[in-house]
Amino acid sequence: MLAATYTQDEELRLEEVAIPNISDDEMLLRVMSASICGTDLRIIRHGHHKLQHGQKIVLGHEFSGTIETIGSRVQNYHVGQRVAVAPNVGCGLCSQCIEGKANMCPNYEAFGISFDGGHAEFVKIPASVISQGNVMPLPDEVSFEEASLNEPLACVINSTFACRIVLGDTIVIFGAGPMGLLHLMLAKLSGAGVVIVCDIMDEKLQRAQELGADHIINPQRSDPKTAILALTQAQGADVVVTACPVHSVQEQAIEVAAPFGRICFFGGLPHKDPKITINSNLIHYRNLIVTGVTGGSNADYKRGLKLLVGKKINLMAVVSATYRLSQAAEAFETALTGRALRIILKPHG
Ligand SMILES: [Zn+2]
Ligand SMILES: [Zn+2]
Predict the structure, then answer these.
(1) Which ligand has an atom closest to residue 108 CA?
(2) Would the pLDDT of 68 be above 90?
(3) Are residues 18 and 132 in the same domain?
C-alpha cells in the first residue's frame, strides 16, 4: 500500500509499504479521509519526544474510513462499516483515564505518534483503541472528510468548555487558522454576544468574517489591545483564546481580559522556550482564570459527531484543499507554508 512515512530526524517520504497484519483483537481500516494537523507538521519540523532517532512512522491522527477486515474476537463492528476514530488512548487505570480523559493520561498513546497513523491507504486499529470505545460508527449524515476533521473539533470543544462561555460574552480569539475558526464557530454556537478575531493574515481574517466574526483585527495594522479596549468600552473581553504559538500573544491575552475573564492558552509554546512575562497583578485584581487545554476526550469526540449530525457546524469551512495520497508531497508542501487552512488527503480517491 501507499503510505506517507516520517523517519525521526530525517524526512517525510511517500513509499510502498506492506499492508499491516491484524490479530484477532484488531481491525484494519480503509482510510477514506485523513487531514494534516499542525501536530503532524511540528513532528516533521522538530521530531517527537516519543520517537527514537531513525524510527519510522506513518503520521496522521485525524482520519476516518471503512472497516476492511476485522479480527475474529472483535464484537459490535462489521466489515464495510463507516467509522471515525478518536486518536488518543490512555492506560485505562490512572485518575484521568477513569474520568474519561485519556488525552490527559501521562502514558497516553496516539495514532501518528505511538503507532502508525492515517496517512496511508490502510491503518491498523490496535486492540486497546477498540476496547476503549475510540472507534465510533459514523452516521450517514456525516461525510468522511468531516469525520476526519472531527478530531480538531473535539479539541476545540474541550477548549470551549474550559472557557466557560456565558450567553452574551465578548470573546477574543487570537489566530484565525483552523483552530481559531473552530473556536469562532463554537463561540457563536455557545451564545457569545460579540466575537473579535485577530490574525496577521488578511485571507484568514476574511474567512473569519464570513464565518460570523463581528470584528477583525490585523495586529500589523492596529494594536490589538487598543482596538479591543475601544470595542469593549474599555472593559476588555470575557473570554480570550490564544490559538497560535506566540509568546507575546499570551502576554497580551491577559492584558485584554475583563474582570472575571477566562483566558485559555489553546496553542502551546515551543518546548525549548515556553516562558512568558506577565503582570500577575492583573490576574489578582481582576479575578481572572488562566487555563489551557490539550487534545480532546472520547466524550468531546462524540459531541463533535453530534454537532455534525445536526449540521450545527460547517467543518469544510476550515479546509483549503484536498489531495490524493499520491500527491502527498505537494499536500505537505502546501501545509508547511503556514498560509493554508486544513489540507485533506484522500488515499482512495
Ligand atoms: Zn490534530
Ligand atoms: Zn491513564
Answers:
(1) 2
(2) yes
(3) yes
Phi and psi based region of residue 96 (left: phi greater than 0; alpha: psi -120 to 50; beta: remaining): alpha
Residue keyed to cell 491503518: 123
Contacts of 257 (CB under 8 A, 6+ apart): 236, 237, 238, 240, 263, 282, 286, 288
Among the bound ligands, the one closest to the CA of 106? 2
Q: Is residue 227 part of a domain?
A: yes
Q: Point out the ligand nearest to the CA of residue 128.
A: 2
**Residue that has been written with the C-alpha cell 503556514 in this structure:** 338
CA 41, CA 17: separation in Å to the nearest integer?
22
Q: Domain containing 230: what range?
A: 155-292
Tell me the pTM: 0.96
Instruction: Report how far ligand 1's centroid is from the alpha carbon of 48 (Å).
Output: 14
Q: Is there a single domain that holds both residue 110 and residue 202?
A: no
pLDDT at 272: 86
Retrieve residue 294's grid coordinates.
Answer: 490539550
Question: 139 C-alpha vs ligand 2 centroid, how far in Å?
Answer: 29
Nearest ligand to the CA atom of 150: 1
